[in-house]
Amino acid sequence: MSESTMTALESCLPQLKCHFNWNLVEGGESLDEFEDEVCNDTEFQNNEFRATVFNIQAYIEHRRGRGEAALESLRRAEELIRQEHSEQADLRSLVTWGNFAWVSYHLGRHADAQMYVDKVRRVCAQARSPYRMESPELDFEEGWARLQCGGRHNERAKVCFKKALEKEPKNPDFASGLAIASYRLDTWPQPQNPVDPLRRAIRLNPDNQYAKVLLALKLQKMKEEEEADRLVEEALKGAPGTTDVLCQAAKLYRRKEALDQAAELLRKALECSPDSTILHWRIGCLYRTKVLEMLQDPGRNEMSVQRAKLQETIEQAVYHLKRVDEANAEFPCVCSYLACLYAQAGKYDAAEHYFQKEFSKELSPGARQVLHLRYGNFQLYQLKCEDTAIHHFIQGMKINQESKEKEKMKNKLHKIACTRLSKNGTDSVALHLLAFLQELNGDMRPAEENSERCLDSGSFLHSVSFTEE
């Protein structure tokens, strides 16, 4: 390839409408987190979105330096487009061809890159620019790609779908994209009511079960629960095995505190995507919530059936959360969740292992504060090691962040001090705790005066549940 031809190729690549020109991953973003969010998300894993997923996967593979894997993903995307959009295959393939050109160029296969650029140019022959054209289908493709990437891309996705709808206002796919983007942007950057876009999407396509369940979730928040329940039942009946519908419906039932129904729906979704880390995370958290509810039942220790049910629920929560931990996915508190569950099951060695694993991570100040509270509870209520518990409550309180966890640790330390002083009025540990709490509160009264107040108040109950955080 001559130098002039090479220069021409390099100048046209930035003009192509494709993922490599959409700034999907910024410099500071983690590629691992981006990949997990985009490629393992349950929202767009159904067949009609697979070509978009393969295009994004190719973008990620290229960013990782795996050019051949990127090309394979693009071939799969191109094949799906030809199967699903045979009448518009060339138009629908423009984004994929642009991606092919970028990957081929960076692999040093300049002739292949030029071939794909030429393909784009032939389709765009009637457009003002030889390498890009204005088309609602291309706006739609960019919108879906940005919806898949989520976060900061939702606003731009909404713009893409609105632009496409201006040219084809009765297109149900474009209306669906706008409805989903509007739903995601409901509270950001300013309140945007998605009800009308969702109703429009359903009106244009009564079989749009995903839009129905999103509308149900919005109506549930608006306290219009009768219509919300009807819509979600319709959606589940119309798409009983569709992952995104199942997951959103589970969210509605979880809000209703119908945890068994929510778990059943998520398990059905898991049958379609058995290795989905996000699904294991959601199911594990559901079972953990059930464990917490069961522990708050005052009669839980009175019947062997209830104890067996609690043990079974703990095992379910542990199974799914361990799958998340083994996948090395970045989910908050997964190890401390496991630690607390093992502690409740009486498996203290396993609990200690997961607590230490969580301590070894780089945690935000708030997350570390929560961890000190949970580990302090473990030491205090399970291992009966008050000194270690005191140490961790103090460490948690030293973190400069006001929170409900900090207030709970403060109360625990105060109660511990009062109880110790009720047994020994000169207990040095108790007096040091009171002095520490005074210093944090800016309270200048002598520790002795505070100790007298503790003695007057009497001791506190030691039957606090481990689940108290």
UniProtKB/TrEMBL annotation:
<keyword id="KW-0051">Antiviral defense</keyword>
<dbReference type="Pfam" id="PF13181">
    <property type="entry name" value="TPR_8"/>
</dbReference>
<dbReference type="GO" id="GO:0005783">
    <property type="term" value="C:endoplasmic reticulum"/>
</dbReference>
<dbReference type="InterPro" id="IPR019734">
    <property type="entry name" value="TPR_rpt"/>
</dbReference>
<keyword id="KW-0391">Immunity</keyword>
<feature type="repeat" description="TPR">
    <location>
        <begin position="243"/>
        <end position="276"/>
    </location>
</feature>
<keyword id="KW-0677">Repeat</keyword>
<keyword id="KW-0802">TPR repeat</keyword>
<keyword id="KW-0175">Coiled coil</keyword>
<keyword id="KW-0399">Innate immunity</keyword>
<dbReference type="GO" id="GO:0043065">
    <property type="term" value="P:positive regulation of apoptotic process"/>
</dbReference>
<feature type="coiled-coil region">
    <location>
        <begin position="214"/>
        <end position="269"/>
    </location>
</feature>
<dbReference type="GO" id="GO:0005829">
    <property type="term" value="C:cytosol"/>
</dbReference>
<comment type="similarity">
    <text>Belongs to the IFIT family.</text>
</comment>
<protein>
    <submittedName>
        <fullName>Interferon induced protein with tetratricopeptide repeats 2</fullName>
    </submittedName>
</protein>
<dbReference type="InterPro" id="IPR011990">
    <property type="entry name" value="TPR-like_helical_dom_sf"/>
</dbReference>
<dbReference type="GO" id="GO:0140374">
    <property type="term" value="P:antiviral innate immune response"/>
</dbReference>
